[in-house]
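step=encode ok
step=design start
structure_in=
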């Protein structure tokens, strides 16, 4: 080598970790006897078993250190291999093959030893590197010791976990011999000495065949591990012949030499008993619910009058559709109850029913309430807020008093109905929703629309399926049914016992017009229970007198011509009065037919035609 080549090799060796502590003068002396050799890809550099006489430094390229097909490691540029040959002449312990075209520096042991004996600087440099490596080995040793402690600690924790598990854990080998169990498994198997016994002996035939088939099917799988739920409940038979039903998992792990299986079982006897009890109770409850539904079928709405039966029929017809419903009726007639009945009977029943009273929210806030707003959309909007429509997504929204909705907001509602989308206040993003709309009003919206107080196109969009809830005064004996129910409810709530309604009391309820409808009736009954004494209520004093009506109103009522439908309704109510007075006896001197001066067969036909049914 010329001087420039020596300098280049010396500079290269300075970057090799093995020679990093050697000074440049010593490295130049070493380079005088270094050889360079080139190996093609897949060419063998060292053969296992060859007597070592030199070490190698990779100038460029990549090599594989291996024993036949097993690879130990790979080395590349500036890595060394074969260093042990510098101090002994033992056979090589592995082969080295070029993985790509590779050039190496060959440092023969005789020149290395000679330089060590004559050049103190070279010796010190090599020793410094070896000492550094020794110290690194000490650190590695300490880490190994710490790792050993961690492994022992982990093993103790794992043992505690296995032994403390409530589930039975059984490990067995490929021959189905048990090699480990935890206390829960010993309890399940009713045996503390099960090691080396066949695990299949502790199962009935069907369960043993299942576990055996899972193990054998797993052997065909090339993967070393699998984890499966047991597809069926297995029966364990303990040493004392106790049989238990269990669910569980089976898993496999291992290596090329041996394979093990872990069976985790959980006793489900108590759960099955509890589940059976639940199923029985559920079946019984379902039966009772069906019985109640057959008896009432009214969604909680007390009704005996034909007008409310018609409302119930409309609820059933529209409930399972997504049609928009407009409920019309006087204030206090129970429009919200009808809305809830529609939602409960619909396929959206498990989703929310969101209610908003359009007349109870200030005009400047209702848009935010309905559609939500972004942070900073208006003064006081310190955080973003969801609107009622977004809260009702996939469910139903009930817009009570829709006639009070401000005109400037009605186009936005129309867009939701038509397109199913809206823009929250202060947002440029469009929100899509799937909402069923039910609206209610005591206003004449058609008249409102003609007067310009309500958008006509919105009215027709809302009025897809109108339901008219009759006033309480038009529901005949329903007022007495509802009153009796309310009396019972408030007496329980206030812990007061009161006497039942008499015929005279019911007459007072039937004669009053109830301008506040059911809400007025509720308030009146609650007040009556509060002021009651010794279980007695003076209903004549509680219910406003009909005598207080002025004469012009009475004259107007007497001069009004009744419709055919009203005449039928009057006949129905008259027959009902007769049936109640005669305790539903039809024939005989004291029967309803005699009281009405009708033939019993004629009365029977009328009862059937008018749909009159004796209450249960």
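sequence_out=
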């Amino acid at each position: 080598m010329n001087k420039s080549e020596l300098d280049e090799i010396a500079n290269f060796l300075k970057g090799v970790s093995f020679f990093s502590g050697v000074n440049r003068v010593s490295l130049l002396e070493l380079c005088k006897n270094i050889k360079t050799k080139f190996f093609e890809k897949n060419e063998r550099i060292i053969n296992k078993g060859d007597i070592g006489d030199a070490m190698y430094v990779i100038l460029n390229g990549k090599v594989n250190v291996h024993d036949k097909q097993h690879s130990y490691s790979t080395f590349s540029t500036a890595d060394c291999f074969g260093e042990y040959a510098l101090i002994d002449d033992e056979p090589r312990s592995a082969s080295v093959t070029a993985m790509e075209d590779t050039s190496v520096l060959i440092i023969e042991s005789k020149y290395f030893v000679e330089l060590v004996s004559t050049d103190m600087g070279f010796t010190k440099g090599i020793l410094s590197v070896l000492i550094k490596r020794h110290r690194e080995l000490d650190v590695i040793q300490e880490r190994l010791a710490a790792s050993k402690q961690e492994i022992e600690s982990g093993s103790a924790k794992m043992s505690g976990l296995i032994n403390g598990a409530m589930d039975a854990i059984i490990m067995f080998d490929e021959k189905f011999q048990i090699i480990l169990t935890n206390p829960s498994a010993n309890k399940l198997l009713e045996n503390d000495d099960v090691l080396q016994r066949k695990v299949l002996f502790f199962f009935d035939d069907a369960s043993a065949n299942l576990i055996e088939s899972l193990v054998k099917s797993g052997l065909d799988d090339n993967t070393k591990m699998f984890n499966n739920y047991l597809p069926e409940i297995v029966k364990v038979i303990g040493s004392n012949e106790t049989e238990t039903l269990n669910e569980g998992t089976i898993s496999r792990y291992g290596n090329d030499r041996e394979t093990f299986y872990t069976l985790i079982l959980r006793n489900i006897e108590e759960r099955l008993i509890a589940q059976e009890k639940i199923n029985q109770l559920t079946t019984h409850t379902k039966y009772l619910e069906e019985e109640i539904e057959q008896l009432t079928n009214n969604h909680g709405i007390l009704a005996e009058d034909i007008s409310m039966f018609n409302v119930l029929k409309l609820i059933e017809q529209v409930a399972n559709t997504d049609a928009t419903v407009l409920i019309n009726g006087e204030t206090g007639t129970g429009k919200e109850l009808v809305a809830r009945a529609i939602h409960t009977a619909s396929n959206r029943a498990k989703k929310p029913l969101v209610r908003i009273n359009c007349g109870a929210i200030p005009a400047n806030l209702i848009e935010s309430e309905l559609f939500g707003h972004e942070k900073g959309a208006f003064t006081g909007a310190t955080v973003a807020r969801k609107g009622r429509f977004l809260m009702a997504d996939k469910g139903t929204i009930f817009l009570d008093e829709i006639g009070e909705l401000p005109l400037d907001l009605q186009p936005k509602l129309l867009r939701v109905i038509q397109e199913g989308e809206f823009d929250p206040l202060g947002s440029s993003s469009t929100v899509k929703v799937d909402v069923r709309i039910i609206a209610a009003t005591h206003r004449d919206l058609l008249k409102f629309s003609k007067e310009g107080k309500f958008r006509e196109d919105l009215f027709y969009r809302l009025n897809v399926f109108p339901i008219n809830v009759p006033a309480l005064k038009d529901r005949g004996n329903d007022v007495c049914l509802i009153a009796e129910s309310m009396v019972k409810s408030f007496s329980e709530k206030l812990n007061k016992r009161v006497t039942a309604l008499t015929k005279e009391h019911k007459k007072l309820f039937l004669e009053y017009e109830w301008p506040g409808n059911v809400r007025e009736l509720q308030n009146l009954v609650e007040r009556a229970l509060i002021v009651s004494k010794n279980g007695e209520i003076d209903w004549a004093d509680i219910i406003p007198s009909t005598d207080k009506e002025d004469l012009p109103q009475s004259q107007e009522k007497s001069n009004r011509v009744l419709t055919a439908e009203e005449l039928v309704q009057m006949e129905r109510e008259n027959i009902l009065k007769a049936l109640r007075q005669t305790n539903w006896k039809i024939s005989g001197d004291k029967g309803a037919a005699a009281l009405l001066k009708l033939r019993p067969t004629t009365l029977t036909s009328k009862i059937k035609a008018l749909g009159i049914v004796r209450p249960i």
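step=design ok
step=annotate ok -> The two ends are 120 Å apart (CA to CA).
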